[in-house]
Amino acid sequence: xxxxxxxxxxxxxxxxxxxxxxxxxxxxxxxxxxxxxxxxxxxxxxxxxxxxxxxxxxxxxxxxxxxxxxxxxxxxxxxxxxxxxxxxxxxxxxxxxxxxxxxxxxxxxxxxxxxxxxxxxxxxxxxxxxxxxxxxxxxxxxxxxxxxxxxxxxxxxxxxxxxxxxxxxxxxxxxxxxxxxxxxxxxxxxxxxxxxxxxxxxxxxxxxxxxxxxxxxxxxxxxxxxxxxxxxxxxxxxxxxxxxxxxxxxxxxxxxxxxxxxxxxxxxxxxxxxxxxxxxxxxxxxxxxxxxxxxxxxxxxxxxxxxxxxxxxxxxxxxxxxxxxxxxxxxxxxxxxxxxxxxxxxxxxxxxxxxxxxxxxxxxxxxxxxxxxxxxxxxxxxxxxxxxxxxxxxxxxxxxxxxxxxxxxxxxxxxxxxxxxxxxxxxxxxxxxxxxxxxxxxxxxxxx
Amino acid sequence: xxxxxxxxxxxxxxxxxxxxxxxxxxxxxxxxxxxxxxxxxxxxxxxxxxxxxxxxxxxxxxxxxxxxxxxxxxxxxxxxxxxxxxxxxxxxxxxxxxxxxxxxxxxxxxxxxxxxxxxxxxxxxxxxxxxxxxxxxxxxxxxxxxxxxxxxxxxxxxxxxxxxxxxxxxxxxxxxxxxxxxxxxxxxxxxxxxxxxxxxxxxxxxxxxxxxxxxxxxxxxxxxxxxxx
Lengths: 448, 229
Ligand code: HEM
Ligand code: HEM
Ligand SMILES: [Fe+2]
Known about the structure:
The structure holds 2 protein chains of 2 kinds. Chain A is mainly α. Chain A has helices at about 10-35, 45-75, 85-105, 120-140, 150-165, 175-210, 215-235, 250-275, 285-310, 310-320, 320-350, 360-395, 400-430. Among the domains of chain A are: about 1-145; about 290-448, no CATH class. The radius of gyration of chain A is 21 Å and the shape is globular. In chain B, about 30% of the residues are buried. The interface between A and B is large, with 71 and 68 residues.
């Protein structure tokens, strides 16, 4: 850490960990409901648990991105954050809005559109909050002495993410259009602008951890985000096959979404090659594990498992089944969950001055979380294939087919237990680092 | 070798080009939308139904057009498959229709609200979805009553409204319960009467629901079932 104002990032990361634990709790509520243990049905029906699970996911990831931005931008811009007190205002109001939304879900107060359940009045508050966030990091960059590619790509990604939230706030009484523009948020986020955020954060981490020349890292960053938009924008069409939109989307969506894994493959090859070319051995091996792990797992979860069901001929059968949930878990975890973990693993020792990397609990956290997630994905895959075969191919009744998936959900929850064990270990290490302090500030030359 | 400024040009150029293509296709999609979704058939009731659908986050358990949650069945074609009358009975008390099964929330909808939700789902069912959901294309293993038998011409009204949603007869109908072909050979009228009156009292733990039928309707159904030989 080089600037006092970077310390705010720590509190964003702390909130992030708290929300993750809550998200996992709600995951288990749904998992139990799926094996017939729905004792909470009267208080937390499945739809409330699900809205909470997925919204907490999106919120903890965004909180992590914001923390990352507050850490990275001052360092890249080589100056203190613009008005750091306002960053506190932003954090607190963000948490307040989030808590109201989550509590509201339990009282049937929501918008009822998948992933965009936050009710309209709160949407406006989210917009104001994000504008404040963009203002703070925007002004920091504006007044900077240097403008690195990494910080520009990061800002551009965050800015577009904010912009793309708006189409989700328009009301349509036509279900097809409702869905059409819902994807402008959901798809163009995770398979578009969030990849810019991911690329920029990975670039920052790779520069710090491998010591490879900034020019080389950033050149390939441009190529990767170029590939992202080349495939991802028209790739939105893979959600426009069956919702009432014209037939040409079958071809447009099929071809361009099939190219999307290239961006993730690029990300993985880029990270591995930069590591191979490393000019130094950074002592924080754990941060390197999470960084390279993120680049690789995102290719598996998003690239490979996304590709598996993106062709119209396959998607016709798997659309809206547990196959989608299988891909959703590994993709979100591999690309964005691990990204936030990577930033935290790198930034915590810097923020607190306690160099607790490379201890056993850190590695154990990494391996059990990832092996747990692979197990969860495997169980969901088998459940999904069972569902597609029985319900879609044979025409069995929905509930009868679901009965056959229960055993796989027992397996899924066992794997989820391992995953959760990893997350808890990670948080245990987080807490052991203690609070950020000014003694951790070091001069530019020895910072890295 | 590729230079950094070339890489940047690739990024900016690609972004501009593909965003433009996406916007053009969006304009065309909007242009075709009223025809493909048969927007002229969207009644005031259907619009109101969409609001009820969203207000209660039905998508948090169900999928519609294949989007939503995977806990409960896809409802895209539900009105076309099961009929409005059945759905009215179902929505009055969802748990009674599937006793002992995965639970839906019991909403206390008024008759008008039920009609609005059904109108919305019916409108969605008529959207041109490029033939989604696909028809099952593998023959299920044979299960008992599958021999095609001569069908009596007249089906009681309640049979088409309620029973068809779950039972197949002569190859048409739902798949929740067993096919009813030849059921008159299996059971006599007295048994069928007791069964329709209160299934759980005949067979504990059964998943066949107790349906709201008047005595007349029940007797008509029993005569009909008993004739299926
Ligand atoms: C990090 C990147 C990604 C994330 C976080 C992600 C996540 C998700 C999620 C959560 C859904 C369910 C959305 C909903 O129904 O509302 C979904 C659907 C889908 N994703 Fe991804 N995805 C990613 C990348 C990809 C890629 C690269 C591909 C293709 C190669 C892909 C193909 C698909 C397809 C075809 C569906 C639709 C499934 C259906 O028809 O039900 N995804 N994704
Ligand atoms: C560890 C315990 C977890 C359990 C038991 C769990 C379980 C579940 C269940 C049962 C669903 C609902 C599927 C349905 O509609 O029937 C779900 C949805 C989802 N979960 Fe989890 N989950 C867990 C953790 C996570 C984590 C760590 C992530 C992300 C990093 C995640 C991301 C998602 C997403 C994106 C969806 C929506 C999927 C879709 O709509 O296709 N979950 N989860
Ligand atoms: Fe997508």
